[in-house]
Amino acid sequence: MRRREFVGGLAGTAAWPLLAPAQEPERPRRIAVLLGGTASETSDARDNIAPFLEVLNQLGWTDGRNIRVESRWGAGNVDNIGKYIGELIALTPDVIVVTGVAALAPLLQITRTVPIVFAFVADPVGAGLIDSLSRPGGNATGFIQFEYSLSAKWLELLKQIAPGITRAAVIRDAATTSGIGQFAVIQSVASSFGVEVSPVNVRDAGEIDRALTRFAGSANGGLIVTGSALANAHRELIVDLAARYKLSAVYYRRSFVSRGGLISYGPDLNDQLRRAAGYVDRILKGEKPADLPVLSPTKYDLAINVKTANALGLTIPESLLARADEVIE
To answer: What is the pLDDT of residue 156?
Structure first.
């Protein structure tokens, strides 16, 4: 072969990769997140997205690299939730993560195709949101807030911390299946604890105020706050009323105790958000929500506010303090 032809052949060979079309970078997957609290509640770990992102990162998904995470906080406001659902759907996400039935129910009315992973949702089967826990069907799966049997534990704790109580007001959302179910369980065990229970509906602040004012007119009363979006939205009012009328109170969520409530016992939402990240990973890799079972909580925490107990003249049993995950002095 002539030297000129050989060199020309090498030059052509070296040049051909430059002429090949550039490979398109893979599109980052988009994850939409709608949480029930407010963006400013960074001290309330239950409304913090950090645990969710932490596990995603461990699974190889990094926000800003191969995923884009868009977050909204509904703050328990129906108008906010509706607005943010519209905004997030418009982003055409690959998967939506949502906490609470107040956001899940309207979201499922909007889309039956976008995969949804939910957390902290009470009785999604009873509410008609999924087919069953083992085979949810449709486009939503996730983690339930608690099993109804937990509600009996709240009355047991109330009697442990304030043995003299003979009456208990139970704040519940009567418009939801979970509100009805939680109260039914508490009512079913009330006689065994020597307590008469009275439901307090949670439709608005005025109703809560009037009902607790009436209830506090008689002695030996206590308070149980069951799980609902409305109870969380009126959190400060409920804690303030319990303090004003010196009602020993048990709450379903730690954030009430960090704001001055007496005692709480319930599932750890941080843990549910971590587990939700695992489901998001599986969905992004091709699994279907309909095939992923809805799971119960695996971690519960007990929080006690000793300062509030002292203000109520209560002595916390040492056995209860020893079991507490958080003690606020």
So the answer is: 97
Query: What CATH number is associated with residue 168?
Result: 3.40.50.2300
Q: Are residues 293 and 320 in the same domain?
A: no
Q: E strands of 173-257, at which residues?
A: 196-201, 221-225, 248-251
**Predicted model pTM:** 0.82
Residues 126 and 79 in one domain: yes
For residues 136 and 252, state if they share a domain: no
Do 314 and 211 sit in the same domain of this protein? yes
118 and 88 within one domain: yes
Distances (CA, A) of 207 to 21, 182, 215: 67, 20, 12
Consecutive 10-residue averages of pLDDT for the chain (329 residues): 45 45 71 76 54 95 95 77 92 95 91 96 92 96 93 97 97 92 97 97 92 96 94 93 98 94 93 96 97 94 96 95 94
Q: In which domain, by residue range, is 218 found?
A: 150-267+301-328
Q: Other C-beta atoms within 10 Å of 67: how many?
A: 20
pLDDT at 18: 46
One domain for residues 219 and 70: no
DSSP 268-282: -HHHHHHHHHHHHHH
Domain membership of residue 93 (yes or no) is yes
Q: Give the residue among 251, 194, 244, 183 at the shortest CA–CA distance from 217.
A: 244
Position 86, amino acid: G
Number of domains in the chain: 2
The pLDDT of residue 100 is 87
Cβ neighbors of 270 (< 8 A, separation 6 or more) are: 45, 46, 48, 51
Q: What strands lie across the sheet with 29-35, from one edge to the other?
A: 67-73, 29-35, 95-99, 116-121, 140-144
Cα–Cα distance, 172 to 57 (Å, whole number): 38
C-alpha to C-alpha distance for 87 and 72, rounded to whole angstroms:
9
